[in-house]
Design brief:
alpha/beta
């Protein structure tokens, strides 16, 4: 397969780097300092599973010079998806698939509006990674994995081909039998952790064992489960317990990308995570006082990071 990676941050840099290092025909869509670094010094990944460098990187800021590819992996920030999709249209051919790996629930719909439903898969990943410097990625925690699924949960040759391509690069890759349930499970995991981490401004090991903080976490999880159920997704009676166990297994110094962005004063995925919870709760007429509070308390920092302008509701 020929694969385009849109966004070369912690996610795109790691998974794209693994594909390129394994010899998969991979092109990175990047810009600015990142593009310059990829072209001049390559892509460096420091990983808990072994460091590696891709010395010769195929990278460009102009997708029209690449043309249609077999798959486009979107690894931008969630709020960048609409703009990234518009710029990526030259990459989309008759049989191209577009796969978002962003946090949140809205990326598949956004890509569907840009390319048509026939081109879009659901996707998610698990990894704790971040940019050390342009072209230099640090994989700090979690055994990385990707998961894909057709939006109608059908099993197709194209999704198996994509899974095999990732697996051939040494990446744990699975096909979800129910992609909406898988996306919700990931959302249930990442959104409360991100909001609480951003408010406490400490790694998960510093707050997960504090009873007061854990109680807020548990209440937020139950609120999200109520939204999922109202939208026809049953995550199981043990969903809260399973999610808490995942938190407790994480390295104590783990943080989320949203948390790091807010602490650094950068625009974050607040609208795609906490904001999306509030919007979906409103649509489903589900009360979410804790999640609404978390969103409201983080909103001033997000607006300041974006220059004080009113935020666009997605």
């Amino acid at each position: 397969m020929k694969i385009a990676i849109v966004g070369v941050g912690g996610v795109g840099g790691y998974f794209g780097g693994k594909l390129a290092k394994a010899g998969v025909d991979t092109v990175f869509i990047a810009r600015g300092a990142t593009l310059a670094a990829l072209r001049s010094t390559g892509l460096r990944v420091d990983s808990i599973h072994g460091d590696f460098i891709v010395e010769q990187v195929n990278a460009t800021d102009d997708p029209s010079t690449v043309g249609p590819v077999d798959a486009v992996i979107f690894a931008t920030k969630a709020w960048q998806i609409p703009e990234a999709a518009e710029k990526a249209k030259p990459l989309i051919g008759k049989d191209t698939i577009a796969v978002p790996l962003e946090n949140g629930m809205e990326a598949p719909d956004q890509l569907t509006r840009a390319f048509g439903r026939q081109h879009v898969l659901g996707g998610l990943c698990g990894i704790v990674s971040y940019i050390v410097a342009p072209g230099h990625i640090k994989h700090a925690a979690i055994d990385p994995f990707v998961m894909f699924g057709e939006l109608d949960n059908s099993q197709t040759p194209r999704i198996e081909r994509l899974r095999e391509t990732f697996a051939s690069a040494g990446i744990k890759a699975d096909i979800s039998p129910d992609i909406q349930r898988s996306l919700w499970s990931k959302f249930l995991f990442i959104a409360p952790m991100s909001s609480i981490g951003a408010l406490t401004r400490v790694p998960i090991g510093a707050w997960r064992s504090i009873p007061e903080a854990r109680e807020i976490l548990v209440r937020a999880l139950h609120e999200m489960l109520a939204i999922a159920k109202a939208r026809g997704v049953d995550l199981g009676d043990d969903a809260v317990e399973r999610t808490l166990e995942r938190y407790d297994r994480m390295a104590p110094d783990s943080t989320s990308s949203l948390q790091r962005d807010i602490i650094d004063g950068k625009p974050s995925e607040l609208e795609a995570q906490a904001g999306a919870i509030v919007r979906m709760a409103r649509e489903a007429k589900v009360a979410t006082p804790v999640c609404a509070m978390l969103y409201a308390l983080l909103l001033p920092q997000e607006r300041r990071a974006r220059g004080g302008a009113s935020m666009t509701r997605q």
